[in-house]
């Protein structure tokens, strides 16, 4: 395990234990000292040891056994050519990238990471809300919740949407297991095999996988710096007569673009003429200014389904998202949710409601936006020094969409860099036409200051 540049005490401890496992000092099956014993022997806090054990557990090197402690579960392999070959053979497909995003690899620089750094989110202090949730709703720990989701959280979301000038009653809001389940519910309700669905191109790649599973014909609407290409959108509406258009108006993933007010108005005009429902994914809402134009604000949920999430601002592990739409459609979608998942987690929903109802949450999102502003500035400078072409220079965005000089196919560049411990998110993955080469990559601004990227590029060159 290679140390990260900014090494914490927990990182160093995890690296040291990993080295002992690799050298056989701690053989497979052996028991580690207890957290208390290790803390006393190392002269550090228990929390430091817990964090180190968490890193090793996430990497599959140790495993907890109830009532017995932690045990070594496998050896560290210094090099594993078979695993590396199979990784490349997967051709950086959608499922591969999703798997990579869900793994914690301290020795790898993941520039394609989809989330803010953990340390940016830690100030939400999830641990301090547990007792409050248990005290006020212990019964929720032992039963299914409402098909709509926890009522007080839906009331809190009513206020959140009002901040975007979207009027929605609690009966128009359905809580979900994150934004991805919300999209899945919409697809199950609207899409039959063979139906054409419009999406942003480039756009949110897990959505493409869901649509392929449903048997949909996916047509990508090219993304301009100010939103979807209206000429192509109108052409596709006439040619394919789709019922749905999935788009992101604010901080679009992966291009970091925002849809202009003029284009948002035109999209709604076309939706009215062609009987189109616009599904607006606003998963990055807490990281961007409230004043930006949202299609649902202009439409007031007549022809729009608004999808929100807290994975980027609170925790992806809570798995709480929501959708808002017309009341009768919301009822139908709540039934779809009930048939496929019975209910969402009321415990998680109570926890999220306690967080966003706290005055600290607004300060937290303000801090997040400040950190993002500084990181974006650093990232733009880093890419500029490398001669990169940035699709849209943003002053505050989790992602930048950019191409590097001399690499017309970012997939090949990604395959080369992975051998040097750097993971990219190549552009082809973000297009429904994934067989076509793209020079662009999605970069997470929080990690572009890491010098390993420039060093790996030099090695590849």
From TrEMBL:
<dbReference type="InterPro" id="IPR051446">
    <property type="entry name" value="HTH_trans_reg/aminotransferase"/>
</dbReference>
<dbReference type="GO" id="GO:0030170">
    <property type="term" value="F:pyridoxal phosphate binding"/>
</dbReference>
<comment type="similarity">
    <text>In the C-terminal section; belongs to the class-I pyridoxal-phosphate-dependent aminotransferase family.</text>
</comment>
<dbReference type="Pfam" id="PF00392">
    <property type="entry name" value="GntR"/>
</dbReference>
<dbReference type="InterPro" id="IPR015424">
    <property type="entry name" value="PyrdxlP-dep_Trfase"/>
</dbReference>
<dbReference type="Pfam" id="PF00155">
    <property type="entry name" value="Aminotran_1_2"/>
</dbReference>
<protein>
    <submittedName>
        <fullName>Transcriptional regulator, GntR family</fullName>
    </submittedName>
</protein>
<keyword id="KW-0804">Transcription</keyword>
<dbReference type="GO" id="GO:0003700">
    <property type="term" value="F:DNA-binding transcription factor activity"/>
</dbReference>
<dbReference type="InterPro" id="IPR036390">
    <property type="entry name" value="WH_DNA-bd_sf"/>
</dbReference>
<dbReference type="GO" id="GO:0003677">
    <property type="term" value="F:DNA binding"/>
</dbReference>
<dbReference type="InterPro" id="IPR004839">
    <property type="entry name" value="Aminotransferase_I/II_large"/>
</dbReference>
<dbReference type="InterPro" id="IPR000524">
    <property type="entry name" value="Tscrpt_reg_HTH_GntR"/>
</dbReference>
<feature type="domain" description="HTH gntR-type">
    <location>
        <begin position="7"/>
        <end position="75"/>
    </location>
</feature>
<dbReference type="InterPro" id="IPR036388">
    <property type="entry name" value="WH-like_DNA-bd_sf"/>
</dbReference>
<keyword id="KW-0805">Transcription regulation</keyword>
<dbReference type="InterPro" id="IPR015421">
    <property type="entry name" value="PyrdxlP-dep_Trfase_major"/>
</dbReference>
<dbReference type="InterPro" id="IPR015422">
    <property type="entry name" value="PyrdxlP-dep_Trfase_small"/>
</dbReference>
<keyword id="KW-0238">DNA-binding</keyword>
<keyword id="KW-0663">Pyridoxal phosphate</keyword>
């Amino acid at each position: 395990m290679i140390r990260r540049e900014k090494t914490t005490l927990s990182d160093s401890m995890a690296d040291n234990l990993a080295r002992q496992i690799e050298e056989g000092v701690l053989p497979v099956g052996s028991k580690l000292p207890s957290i208390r014993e290790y803390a006393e022997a190392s002269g550090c806090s228990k929390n430091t040891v817990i964090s180190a054990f968490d890193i090793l557990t996430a990497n599959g090197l140790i495993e907890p056994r109830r009532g017995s402690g932690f045990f070594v579960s496998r050896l560290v392999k210094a090099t594993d050519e078979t695993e590396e070959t199979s990784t490349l053979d997967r051709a950086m497909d959608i499922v591969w990238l999703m798997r990579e995003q869900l793994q914690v690899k301290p020795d790898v620089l993941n520039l394609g990471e989809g989330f803010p750094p953990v340390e940016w989110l830690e100030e939400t202090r999830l641990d301090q809300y547990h007792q409050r949730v248990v005290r006020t709703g212990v019964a929720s720990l032992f039963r299914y919740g409402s098909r709509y989701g926890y009522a007080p959280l839906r009331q809190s979301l009513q206020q959140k949407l009002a901040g975007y000038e979207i009027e929605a009653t609690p009966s128009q809001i359905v809580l979900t297991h994150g934004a991805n389940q919300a999209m899945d519910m919409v697809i199950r309700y609207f899409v039959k095999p063979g139906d054409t669905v419009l999406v942003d191109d480039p756009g949110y790649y897990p959505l493409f996988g869901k649509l392929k599973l449903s048997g949909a014909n996916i047509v990508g609407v090219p993304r301009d710096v100010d939103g979807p290409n209206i000429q192509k959108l109108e052409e596709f509406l006439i040619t394919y007569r789709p019922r749905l258009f999935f788009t992101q108006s604010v901080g679009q993933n992966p291009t970091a673009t925002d849809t202009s007010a003029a284009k948002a108005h035109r999209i709604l005009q076309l939706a009215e003429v062609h009987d189109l429902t616009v599904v607006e994914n606003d998963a990055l809402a807490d990281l961007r200014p409230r004043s930006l134009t949202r299609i649902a604000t202009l439409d007031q949920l007549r022809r729009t389904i608004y999808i929100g999430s807290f994975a980027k601002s609170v925790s992806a592990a809570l798995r709480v998202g929501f959708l808002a739409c017309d009341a009768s459609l919301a009822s139908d979608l709540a039934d779809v949710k009930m048939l496929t998942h019975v209910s969402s987690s009321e415990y998680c929903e109570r926890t999220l409601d306690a967080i966003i109802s706290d005055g600290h949450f607004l300060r937290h999102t303000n801090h997040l936006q400040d950190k993002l502003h500084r990181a974006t500035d650093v990232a733009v400078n880093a890419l500029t020094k490398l001669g990169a072409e940035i699709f849209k220079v943003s002053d505050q965005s989790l992602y930048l969409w950019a191409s590097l000089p001399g690499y017309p196919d970012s997939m090949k560049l990604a395959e080369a860099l992975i051998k040097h411990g750097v993971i990219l998110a190549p552009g082809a993955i973000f297009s429904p036409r994934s067989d076509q080469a793209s020079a662009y990559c999605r970069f997470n601004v929080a990690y572009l200051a890491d010098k390993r990227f420039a060093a790996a590029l030099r090695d590849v060159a």
